[in-house]
């Protein structure tokens, strides 16, 4: 029997019952023999339950990299000791977070709030692929910082994005939390140790600014901080104010004469400063993830990440769900499968039929599928070849 492993849930809506780990030769073999868990010769409900609940550990078949220098090894060991607990802690937040009990994680972990905000609206697997980290010296002072960010594109299993949720630095051989942001209180990397900031506190309060990590104090300082507020007691006219404290306090700020028109110009300039950071995705943290190069999620959560998608309608129903299949590294020979059930008494066996195919599913272009969600038994699946040419099949 082939090795089986269970993977992702799609946003809490579409469960992946099982992953059928196959090689090319296995495709021509008898399906019941390959995937029969309880040994009765056919795939039945009990087999599906067993497959779904069976979890194989992390698989790492990456090609060996060139041997790093002794100094690089020393740095990697040192910063793994400093930042490793934070990375693993945030990984646990992603996997253990319960949207129905957002306060049920326990313990204090700076930066966890932004991770929980992402996890609250996505599945574990999607959060692991959206969120990543980078350990890098951003201001050139010889000390590496830890950045937690969001990927908006992928290449060769890495994520790339400018939206930074959390920043840590190293002080006295320990990770020190500096700041975090959210969607309405957002930081974006701007290069040279700087971050541009854009926030909102309602219709009358818009925030913008730029912060830089000081090489002298290893603290984030405001180069500029702008906020809007009413200029009159009748609350009719909005003005723009500036300071370098980061406080929405008119008494310690100067009013910008050009007003809110100037703010639009400032925000446009800040948007032009954004720079991508290469991120190691949380899906690659071995202790907490069963990495696969293809994942899926409800389209409402990921559609904004892709300007164009390929599309396939597996269902014409007005109640059908829209699911995005996306790759964090390129795969080939991608197929959407219809599972044809064959009844034999009380037992059910399946034979997959490819109803849609494309040569490549790349990091740049996702596939949007309209399909009916299974209520009891699965009737759809996917298959593809990974970077090693290995055929992999999944039941949805």
Structure in words:
With 396 residues, the chain is an alpha+beta fold. The chain contains 7 helices and 25 strands. The strands form 4 sheets. Strands 5, 6, 7, 8, 9, 10, 11, 12, 13, 14, 15, 16 and 17 form a 13-stranded antiparallel beta sheet that branches. A 6-stranded antiparallel beta sheet has the order 1-4-25-24-21-22. It is globular. Residues 1-38, 42-68 and 102-108 have low confidence and may be disordered.
Brief characterization of the structure:
The chain has 396 residues and is an alpha+beta fold. Helix content is 18%, strand content 39%.
Report the count of strand segments.
25
Q: Which of globular, elongated, flat, extended, rod-shaped describes the shape?
A: globular
- Gap between N and C termini, in Å? 20 Å
Mean pLDDT: 78
Spans of at least 5 consecutive residues whose pLDDT stays below 50 are: 1-38, 42-68, 102-108
Question: So how many helices?
Answer: 7
Main sheet properties: 13 strands, antiparallel
Strand content: 35-45%
Structural class: alpha+beta
Helicity, in percent? 10-25%
Rg of Cα set: 25 Å
Q: Quaternary status of these chains?
A: single chain
């Amino acid at each position: 029997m082939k090795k089986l492993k269970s993977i992702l849930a799609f946003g809490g809506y579409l469960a992946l019952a099982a992953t059928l780990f196959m090689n090319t030769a296995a495709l021509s073999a008898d399906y019941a023999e390959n995937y029969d868990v309880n040994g009765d010769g056919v795939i039945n409900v009990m087999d599906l339950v067993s497959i779904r609940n069976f979890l194989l550990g992390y698989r790492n078949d990456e090609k060996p990299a060139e041997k790093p220098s002794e100094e690089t090894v020393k740095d990697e060991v040192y910063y793994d000791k400093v930042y490793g607990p934070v990375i693993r802690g945030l990984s646990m937040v992603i996997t253990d977070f319960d949207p129905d009990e957002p306060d049920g994680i326990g313990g204090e972990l700076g930066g966890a709030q932004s991770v929980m905000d992402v996890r609250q609206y996505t599945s574990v697997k999607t959060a692991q692929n959206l969120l990543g980290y980078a350990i890098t010296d951003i201001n050139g002072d010889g000390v590496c910082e830890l950045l937690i960010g969001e990927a908006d594109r992928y290449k060769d299993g890495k994520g790339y994005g400018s939206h930074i949720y959390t920043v840590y630095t190293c002080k006295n051989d320990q990770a020190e939390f500096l700041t975090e942001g959210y969607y309405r209180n957002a930081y974006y990397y701007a290069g040279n140790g700087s971050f541009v900031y854009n926030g909102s506190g309602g219709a009358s309060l818009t925030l913008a600014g730029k912060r830089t990590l000081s090489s002298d104090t290893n603290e984030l300082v405001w180069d500029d901080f702008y906020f809007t507020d009413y200029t009159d007691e009748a609350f009719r006219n909005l003005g723009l104010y500036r300071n370098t404290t980061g406080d929405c306090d008119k008494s310690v700020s100067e009013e910008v004469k050009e007003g809110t028109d100037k703010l639009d110009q400032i925000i446009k300039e800040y948007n032009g400063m954004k720079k991508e950071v290469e991120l190691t995705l949380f899906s690659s943290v071995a202790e907490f993830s069963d990495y696969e190069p293809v994942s899926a999620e409800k389209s409402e959560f990921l559609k904004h990440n892709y300007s164009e998608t390929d599309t396939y309608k597996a269902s014409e129903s007005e109640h059908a769900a829209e699911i995005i299949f996306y790759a964090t590294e390129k795969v080939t020979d991608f197929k959407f499968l219809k599972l044809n059930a064959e009844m034999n008494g009380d037992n059910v066996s399946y034979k997959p039929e490819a109803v849609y195919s494309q040569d490549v599913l790349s990091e740049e272009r996702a596939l949007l599928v309209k399909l009916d969600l299974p209520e009891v038994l699965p009737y759809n699946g996917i298959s593809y070849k990974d970077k090693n040419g290995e055929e992999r099949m999944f039941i949805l």
